[in-house]
Design a protein that fits this description.
elongated; 14 strands; alpha/beta; Glucose Oxidase, domain 1; 3-stranded mixed beta sheet; 2 domains; Aminopeptidase; 11-stranded mixed beta sheet; homodimer
Chain lengths: 478, 478
């Protein structure tokens, strides 16, 4: 999960017909009437029985766990454009065939490659202490042997924006901004701007490098990776994230006087590295040209195992589709699985998919890319006349403990290109309260996934996929 | 905190006059009588007022926090025998003088030095994945360039003990034993045996290296350092600890078939490295030759900051002694602070202190070396006639939420030599429920200390120190 900040910005401009009304205090003399139920598209008794069957099966199935365990154990971290990502594609093709999907294929493309071969930072004065650090994606190398400079700290990005060249020239900028823990990930949108904007702002004022307090919510000694390349095109300043304890240490050192830091980044930067999307389908029995697109991304950052980001998403959508595949009759519409490549370093797979498949009839699209927490909310981004269908999904999902959300869904990074083309999207919003504890760190490991929450996700996705593909509902303005 | 296992073994042989009786169910017809209060040595009204004043002052003081923050920021990790440990001694001398103690001095000694210059482990087949690893203290280097071998897993140490040479020859042994979370640290005593015993057992059966699941209770991607050298004298097998997620990964890989691991350890092993104890005193006003010894250790492992192990202990005992130092009258007896060197790699400082100061009159000794959790229990190790004094301490500590414990105190690693000489010891037992989440990892950082719990520790230690030094109580058999 990478470009949440962009997505949140997009939300600010989204048309929003909120299903959650602000309550007003009734006069005590008024007899309360229950509010009229919003119009909800009916589903047939047979479909209702199928939904119940799918949910029961999902809540008893360990298929999603098996998929993510296999991905972690047999492939592990899979940096965009790397040999490991290529192995992940081969793994995915074999797995999707084994799960009896059709049209399983790789759609290759190339990307700009970036990897950190070496990333080290230490305070060298007043006393020598090494820090836990991760180079930010796209960061150039430091001069051979590293660079050393005094550090100037800013409590947040706004303080850096207000700084002068006199404060920054020849120095390493350190942005010490913290991130707020939230259920829906909105704290990330607020905090992540420093990751992309530090380098261009600092470079324009004559600084020599950027350090940021890791964008994360945990108190542990992990640096959080993350891209800075896409936003910082043309920027030549090395940039890295340090762990929260090291940010504390640097700040406390600076309270006592000047602090000098040494930073070493050796980056492997190449053009035209191989990546690719992996695609699989359940062919629609009546309207095969109508596509319900479900996405997750196959690549990961490489400090951790890529278990929650986004092995979990791969497992959830695949296991859900498999349950639908196993129904006595295939649904009317085609269900297409997109396991996107190279999401983390620039949403290349999603963009490529949107370009290549722009002419097809995508009915709706959604992505699972926010870890493995329970789904707590279903949001749509439908044309106004289609809102009764959103309510039908919500009613079917309610037994899983899922609340109705508004009509300002984001859809996910890899469906962004489709959304921009006007394809309706939905969010099966996951509880991300602890997602940014692990996100893009070495601590993104299999044990962070709760098997029960994973099953609930599969149940929710199976419900959504089935109803979207079995009905003739359309979600666009007609 | 290193040799808890040894201490716990010692406890099994300790004479125990438990203050905590097993309750028996009374007959419903019996009228319950409150139990008679055990005999408790009285303290004077003046002493009672002083105790209350000390406790109030401690609970409002940030001195301990300032001390540990200074140690972390100005020195940081301080491996036994290293230049950083030497800087820590200089720091401690300056700090203890600033806190107005007397006889501040360094008592130097030399130790066998061990450091890991390089420690790497990865699964290389069936697929390549790097693991988070820490070489165990005292481990020899692998052959230059590392070693590679198939792995054989044992669920616990007992399973390794039962293994044959045919199973082990030419292989890397992997002990996957887990540790139980407990308040008093007893889970450590049970789990840590694998750390010292893996190498000798595996070597005797022809294995080429040892890997152990880290001795710890956390679910995070940290390897826990720890000594194996002292117990494993003469053993030449490289040994390392891997993080819990990597132990899971290795176990899951082995469930699928053979797994091959590559291990690289480059150790710096030297004789006669400089270490030393730092000592400071509050000279007794009437009986200066009678010594109340309070200890903590100055060295640390070097992945983390040594904040909870044992910066917290250094801060707690120093701040507590400073409060006593600030009383209108110095206590009758001498209070001596021992900041021991080189505890982690063999309790060298404590042993040296016991050797050099064996002839002195130590009234009682205690160490703070179990993190910064609240003190929840006061235990003694006194001769039977002195138990009323233990109860007097316990009564004075009760307002701080501290329970009476038994008479089987351990006293701590660095007071072990004194204890063996017959010096009475006490434990201000800390709640260590989360201590082994951080112990000997990169995550032992300042933010893991709760300032409020730290103050409560200072209040407890000030109470103990004052009463022990102001009264003429003796705790030995006469």
């Amino acid at each position: 999960m990478r470009n949440f900040a962009l997505a949140l910005t997009a939300l600010a401009f989204a048309s929003s017909a909120s299903a959650q009304q602000t309550p007003t205090s009734p006069s005590p003399n008024v007899i309360l009437q229950p509010p009229a139920a919003p119009p909800t598209a009916p589903i047939s008794a047979e479909q209702q029985r199928t939904v119940e069957r799918l949910q029961r099966a999902a809540l008893e199935s360990d298929l999603a766990w098996q998929i993510v365990e296999d991905l972690v154990v047999e492939v592990g971290p899979r940096l965009a454009g790397s040999e490991a990502e290529a192995r992940a594609r081969d793994w995915a093709v074999a797995m999707l065939r084994e799960q009896r999907f059709t049209n399983v294929r790789i759609e290759p493309f190339t990307i700009p490659y970036w990897d950190a071969l070496r990333e080290e930072a230490s305070i060298i004065a007043p006393s020598r202490q090494s820090m836990v650090v991760a180079a930010l994606g796209g960061s150039p190398s430091t001069p051979a042997g590293g660079l050393e400079a005094d550090v100037v700290r800013f409590s947040d990005l706004a303080a850096l924006e207000a700084a002068t060249e006199a404060q920054l020239r020849g120095r390493i900028v350190f942005i010490d901004e913290r991130m707020l823990r939230t259920q829906d990930g909105s704290g990330y949108g607020a905090a992540v701007a420093k990751r992309s904007r530090c380098a261009p702002l600092a470079q324009a004022r004559g600084a020599v490098a950027c350090l940021v307090r890791s964008v994360g919510t945990d108190p542990h000694r992990f640096a959080h990776q993350g891209g800075s390349s896409r936003q910082a095109a043309g920027v030549s300043l090395p940039a890295a994230a340090i762990s929260p304890a090291d940010a504390d240490l640097l700040a406390l050192t600076l309270e006592r006087g000047p602090a000098r830091v040494r930073l070493v980044i050796e980056a492997d930067i190449r053009d035209n590295a191989p990546s690719g999307n992996v695609i699989a389908e359940i062919r629609g029995r009546e309207r095969p040209e109508e596509i319900v697109l479900i996405a997750a991304h196959l690549d990961s950052w490489d400090l951790g195992q890529g278990a929650i980001d986004d092995g979990a998403g791969v497992a959830i959508i695949t296991a859900a589709a498999r349950l639908v595949r196993d129904l006595p009759r295939r649904p009317r519409r085609t269900i297409r699985i997109l396991l996107a490549g190279a999401e983390e370093n620039g949403v290349h797979g999603g963009d490529e998919y949107g370009r290549v498949h722009a002419g097809e009839n995508h009915i709706v699209a959604a992505e699972s890319d926010f870890g493995a927490g329970r789904v707590y909310r279903f949001r749509s981004r439908f044309a106004e006349p289609a809102l009764p269908y959103a309510r039908a999904f919500q009613r079917a999902l309610a037994p899983l403990g899922i609340l109705p959300g508004d009509n300002a869904a984001n859809g996910g990074a890899d469906t962004g290109a489709l959304r921009q083309q006007g394809v309706p999207v939905v969010d099966l919003s996951q509880d991300g309260s602890d997602y940014f504890d692990y996100h893009h760190t070495a601590d993104d490991t299999l044990d962070k996934i709760d098997p029960e929450a994973l099953r609930q996700n599969v149940a929710a996705w199976a419900t959504f996929i089935y109803l979207a593909a079995e009905n003739d509902w359309t979600f666009r303005a007609t």
